[in-house]
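To the wet lab folks,

You asked to see what we're planning to order before we commit. Fair enough. Below is the target structure as tokens, and below that is the sequence we designed to fit it. If anything looks off to you, flag it before the synthesis order goes out.
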């Protein structure tokens, strides 16, 4: 917002542009005239932000505002080339890599770029990016609120900077920018180790002790892992509560293979080998730029559940999928063009305006959002609604294998993409197994 400053009867206008304070002098004018000019500056800045107007090449923001958005044109010298903006680099990077990266990776980078563009500005000249700009961004983001009232995680902020660095390094190869990404010396807030994986009973005891904030309680539930008996209870609940036939086998598959959500929805029926009792998992995180596979044994129980599911499978190549149409589904309903509650008409005839029949849909895989939505719906209003997402099944699988003293090499082979840091955090045993082991030491 533009402000006025008066000194000895002379006015000047102050405003912020790309996080920096700018100013220009109006001189000795009346206060009404000065206030009108400040209002006009606010209006022009708003229009620039909304992209309804743009600054001519070679014109700085002060000159642009001094001349009411219509600076004089100097035909004697050709305007310098327009500076490459942050928005253009982000858009070009995503359009180039969208087909070669994991959809979840593209989704995450798009979120990161949106935050960067919001704080730095779409028109920020990327070639002028400095350590001070990045530090200012980190400091601002560190004050933002995360989930459950917590401060935004330093790890999240670092991922946003890494996304920008990745786009910068690509821009260097494309000769869009030059030089090293200016992040040497960048300081982040202190990070905290994630709590160790805890059983439900351990979490409930800590919460019952009192004194924990909502954020601290949520962090404890994030660390939940299920023991073997609890996995069976969860699967029985899904079997009883599921409204779609693919949900129970999908949960069973996740709990008995440790596959990630993206790997589950990518699995095809051809990947199952009931004779060899293995499934081929298609992964995209182990080797950069290449889709690799790993083979996971099928438990006898999983074989039975999958055979029952394949007997009623709706068709298509993917193992877990919807039928072509699903009641009350935004993407798989018979009609399309419906409006939401805020914009739709009050009458039935008014609501039907623009609604048309949807073309035939091929049977395809679930989307990541559909998988998450079904996960939360089937666990709603039960003791399992504290589970965050499909990854808890992966935690449970690895934790159960570790508690049964399965060789770590087998766990690595079955689960894939395991760093030493991940191994240390997953390398927990059930409390009873730990107590039994220690009791043997001092027996």
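Sequence we intend to order:
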């Amino acid at each position: 917002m533009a402000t006025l400053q008066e000194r000895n009867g002379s006015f000047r206008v102050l405003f912020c542009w790309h996080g920096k304070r700018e100013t220009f002098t109006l001189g000795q004018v009346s206060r009404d005239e000065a206030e009108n000019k400040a209002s006009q500056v606010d209006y022009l800045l708003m229009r620039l932000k909304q992209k309804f107007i743009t600054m001519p090449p070679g014109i700085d923001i002060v000159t642009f505002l001094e001349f009411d958005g219509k600076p004089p044109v100097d035909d004697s010298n050709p305007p310098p080339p327009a500076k490459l903006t942050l928005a253009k680099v982000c858009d070009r990077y995503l359009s180039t890599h969208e087909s070669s990266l994991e959809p979840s990776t593209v989704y995450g980078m798009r979120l990161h770029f949106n935050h960067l563009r919001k704080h730095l500005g779409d028109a920020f000249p990327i070639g002028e990016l400095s350590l001070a700009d990045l530090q200012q961004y980190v400091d601002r983001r560190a004050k933002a609120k995360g989930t459950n009232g917590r401060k935004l995680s330093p790890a999240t902020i670092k991922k946003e900077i890494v996304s920008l660095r990745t786009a910068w390094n690509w821009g260097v190869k494309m000769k869009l920018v030059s030089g090293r990404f200016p992040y040497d010396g960048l300081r982040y807030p202190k990070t905290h180790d994630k709590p160790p994986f805890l059983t439900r009973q351990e979490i409930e005891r800590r919460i019952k002790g009192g004194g924990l904030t909502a954020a601290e309680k949520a962090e404890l539930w994030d660390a939940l892992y299920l023991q073997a008996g609890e996995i069976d209870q969860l699967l029985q609940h899904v079997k009883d509560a599921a409204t779609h036939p693919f949900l129970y086998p999908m949960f069973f598959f996740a709990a008995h293979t440790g596959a990630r959500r993206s790997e589950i929805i990518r699995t095809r029926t051809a990947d199952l080998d009931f004779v060899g009792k293995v499934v081929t998992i298609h992964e995209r995180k182990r080797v950069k730029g290449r889709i690799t596979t790993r083979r996971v044994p099928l438990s006898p129980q999983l074989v039975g559940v999958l055979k029952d599911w394949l007997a009623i499978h709706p068709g298509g190549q993917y193992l877990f999928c919807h039928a072509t149409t699903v009641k009350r589904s935004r993407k798989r309903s018979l009609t399309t063009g419906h409006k939401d509650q805020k914009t739709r008409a009050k009458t039935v005839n008014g609501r039907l305006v623009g609604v048309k029949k949807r073309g035939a849909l091929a049977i395809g895989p679930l989307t990541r959002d559909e998988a998450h939505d079904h996960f939360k719906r089937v666990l709603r209003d039960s003791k399992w609604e504290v589970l965050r997402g499909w990854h808890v099944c992966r935690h449970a699988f690895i934790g159960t294998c570790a508690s049964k003293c399965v060789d770590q090499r087998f766990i690595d082979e079955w689960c894939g993409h395991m760093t030493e840091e991940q191994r240390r955090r997953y390398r927990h045993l059930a409390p009873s197994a730990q107590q039994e082991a220690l009791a043997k030491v001092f027996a």
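Structural context that might help your review: The two ends are 74 Å apart (CA to CA). The chain has a mean pLDDT of 85.

Thanks,
Computational group
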